[in-house]
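Quick review question:
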């Protein structure tokens, strides 16, 4: 069954790989990212895979939602009046020791990884309520899992993803009346640009296509078996 899916952070890494694999199912994909050129390349490849125009770009910095979301709503209206799945994949990372990271930098990370996601959910909720098969999937991290190994320099990133994990549990309960499922995926290390930034020289065992295959399954079907859960998708830490 074809679905209407909004994916943030879709211009590279796991977000782009998810879009490529979902394109094979000819879902309508609304792809959001800040990089116009990279996003256009992802959309073009998705359309090529589907053999039809199924991917629609929104070039946007989600932190702008914290000021005024009307321009985003207009862009979303231009792409689709309906929405079945919201995938909150976009994230920001600043790697600095706690004694060096400033309050402004910590707020920057929380704005991108938590508050912008919170506001995006608010703005998309009217569309999700109209769907008979609605799901919100938040991408967190193994860094957000209590008891998992933590790494120096990632306090703001880890804490922001932990906040998103708790929000996931809260919204799953609140949105039961609408029939909307809310879950989170705590990904472990995958060979992406963000991993290279956080851990230079570290080589993860999992490639974007491999994680993208699992991600595709969860977006298309797996979420129906869970609600209010953060699934740890990792065979190691990080």
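Suggested answer, residue by residue:
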């Amino acid at each position: 069954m074809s679905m209407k899916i909004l994916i943030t952070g879709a211009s590279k890494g796991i977000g782009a790989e998810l879009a490529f694999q979902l394109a094979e199912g000819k879902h309508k994909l609304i792809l959001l990212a800040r990089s116009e050129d990279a996003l256009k390349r992802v959309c073009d490849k998705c359309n090529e895979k589907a053999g039809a125009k199924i991917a629609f770009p929104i070039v946007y910095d989600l932190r702008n939602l914290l000021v005024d979301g009307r321009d985003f709503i207009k862009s979303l209206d231009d792409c689709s009046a309906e929405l079945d799945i919201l995938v909150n994949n976009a994230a920001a990372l600043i790697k600095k020791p706690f004694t060096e990271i400033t309050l402004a930098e910590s707020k920057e990370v929380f704005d991108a990884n938590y508050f912008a996601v919170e506001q995006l959910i608010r703005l998309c909720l009217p569309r999700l309520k109209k769907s008979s098969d609605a799901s919100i999937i938040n991408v967190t991290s193994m860094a957000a899992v209590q008891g998992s190994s933590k790494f120096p320099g990632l306090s703001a990133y880890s804490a922001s993803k932990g906040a998103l994990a708790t929000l996931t549990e809260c919204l799953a309960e609140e949105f039961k009346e609408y029939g909307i499922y809310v879950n989170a995926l705590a990904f472990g290390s995958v060979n992406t640009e963000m991993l290279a930034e956080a851990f230079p020289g570290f080589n993860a065992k999992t490639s974007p296509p491999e994680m993208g295959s699992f991600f595709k399954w969860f977006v298309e079907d797996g979420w129906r078996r869970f609600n209010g859960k953060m699934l740890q998708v990792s065979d190691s830490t990080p």
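Why it works: The chain has one domain: 4-233. Residues 4-233 form a domain with the Rossmann fold fold (CATH 3.40.50.720).
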